[in-house]
Amino acid sequence: MRGRKRGAAGPRSGHHDDAAERDAGIEVATEREAGIEVATERAAGIEVTAERAARIDVTAERAAGIEVATGRAAGIDVANVSRDVLLPDGGTARILHDVSLRIRPGEFVGLVGRNGSGKTTLARLMNGLMQPTAGTVRVDGFNTADGKDQIEVRRRTGMVFQNPDHQIVSSVVEEDVAFGPENLGLSPAKVRERTEWALEELGLSHLKRHAPNLLSGGQKQRVAIASILAMKPSHLILDEPTSMLDPWGRLDLLATLRMLNRDLGLTLVLISHQMEDLLLADRLVVLERGRIVRDGTPGEIFACESNLADWGIHVPDVPFLINALNRQSGISAGMLATVEELVGWLWQWWNSKT
User: Each residue of 69-81: pLDDT tens digit?
Assistant: First the structure.
């Protein structure tokens, strides 16, 4: 694999030690999760609860490892952030207004709202691609506006754009995935190890010698994600990653994202206009005209029926049916994501009444 540079900035001194320390922490977390999964398989009837408990335990351990290693708080902290843009006439317009948000390690958070509400701007601020006009953004304690912290911010927070062609840099899949680790200054053996691991996690090992331009849209998105995963980030931000995919590619990509969040403890921040993409999120953050107007679980957000049209949110079919059942019959089914889950819940509810 060829050594390449994406920008002028190179890795800081001591980066090899940081990377090794981080790898060790991830390996410990992976071993712990494997043990929990084995125990869970033996406990019939509590798979879902045990699985979520396992993810929380692993995430907490991973966060503790970051905090011990860096002396900084893990997670993404947005504090009183505003952002201005320059207008053609030389004036300025404020597109984010005093936004504050805390995303804990291992969370799956959806950013929702109309076009122009500030979702992409907020996502780019989290990654350090933009700087706030006022306020601060910190990633695992590193300030995105501090020049000496930017390499660390971008190593810890990967971003996937709507069009994967905009971030594929090589003519061979394997070389594209290796690009990030190479630019972290890792040894060739470590670059190869991370590349093979990321390709395997994303189900791309059989395509590693292929040209990215010959892949499907869904496969290209997985290459883009694998390229970021090979850098072992803590957080992954995705801006409309399913908008250019067919229904099968979309479902495949969402399954991959759930695996990264559930099995690897990776924090996900997902922007999408398709609410079906976000049914399994831990939280939805609603933006309207550059302000956060609501922050809650998907069930709590979809229950705000009188506000959804104003926020540009449509209710997916299953939550729509749950809301209708609750409104007409007082039946509360909680937050269910699929038709199969709703049918199963209704069957149990009916049996409990007969």
Answer: 444 578 999 999 9
